Amino acid sequence: MRRLLMPLLALLLAAPAPPDRSVDLGEIRPLLDGASESTPIDLFLRLPELAVGLDERQIDGLIWVLRHGSKPQRLLAAELITYAGEPRAARVLLRRSLWTGEEELARLASMAAGALSSQPTRDLLVAQLAGEQIGATWGSVMESALSLGVRRERAAVPALREAAGRVPESFGADAARLALSWIEGGEGRVAFAETTDELEVLAAVFRLGLPRTYDRPQLYEAASERLWSVENGEWSFSHTAVRPQRTPRLDFKVRISPEQERAIVSAALNLEGHCGTGWDYVLRRRAGRWQVVGFWMIWIS
After folding, report:
1. What are the residue ranges in the chain where pLDDT is below 70?
2. What CATH number labels 2-183?
3. pLDDT tens digit string along 234-278?
4. What does the pLDDT look like over 44-54, one tens digit per residue?
């Protein structure tokens, strides 16, 4: 209990959120007004596009909704904040999840916590790894593990190893093993012959890593006619209009905010047959370099 209580108190006693006030939420206001218990699939698919365009006033508005909205509105605001990768809003989301005790809000707060760097946040994420991997808290376990991996928290390695072995076939254990590979394997290397805004963002994605690609030396991105190759741990690409036989297909959708400080990458890996996985990466530019601050699986088949 003490293991969870201390980081919880530290977060609750942190600096208060910005003053509550009504602001112009723009195009997301009708979505919040019509929020329901479950997010419709068409709206869910639009979350990255909506979140990457949020400005400071809209983020202030989402913080206000977190504190005063109905439960469906709070959850939709939390999903948008998670995709925004904005530390100030992520801190408020984390505190609200602790205050309300809502498991779905806790799961989203664990996803958003990758944008934070404080020790109390790390300690809370580590504590949440002890939750049930099959049961009510499995989502928070999985997302806490991934956020610790995104943050490359070496102090979390013992807890991640324990989580990885507790229920080996669970999503929580898979996430813990993935986080361990990021932490213990170190940052990936890239060597791109070209430089564009999009490629700078994708370089950060490859530096973190693409799950399920460790034994696949080549991936083909049809939309950009790029053949991605890894050799001795270093990713590069060449252009070709022809997909090599039996090479897995990789698709990227890159969204960059108007101020060039935030980005969201949706990645989809399609393997042989009907097997595939999709992930979303949330990135922020820090000291002139793109860095992944959030990662989660969107679909699997």
Report:
1. 1-24, 273
2. 1.25.10.10
3. 999 999 999 998 899 999 999 999 999 999 999 999 987 678 999
4. 888 999 999 99
The verdict on pTM exceeding 0.85 is yes
* Domain limits, CATH 1.25.10.10, in the chain: 2-183
Q: How far apart are the first and last CA of the chain?
A: 38
For the stretch 20-52, what's the b/e string if a residue is b when 16 or more beta carbons lie within 10 angstroms of its beta carbon?
Answer: eeebebeebeebbeebeeebeeeeeeebbebbb
Supply angle C-alpha 278, 110, 71, rounded to 5.
Answer: 95
In the chain, residues under CATH classification 3.10.450 are 189-300
Residues forming a β-bridge with 289: 286
Tokens representing 143 are 């997302």
Look at domain 189-300 and name its CATH class: alpha beta
Instruction: Kindly state the tokens that stand for 55.
Output: 């400005």
Token pair recorded at residue 153 = 């928290």
b/e map of 108-142 (b: 16 or more CB within 10 Å)?
Answer: bbbbbbbbbebebbbbbbbbbbbbebeeebbbbbb
The tokens describing 129, both together, are 């790894």
Count of beta carbons in the 10 Å neighbourhood of residue 182:
23
Please give the Cα distance from 109 to 91 (Å, whole number).
8
Tokens of 134: 């099959």
CA 275 to CA 10: how far, in whole Å? 43
Length of the chain equals 301
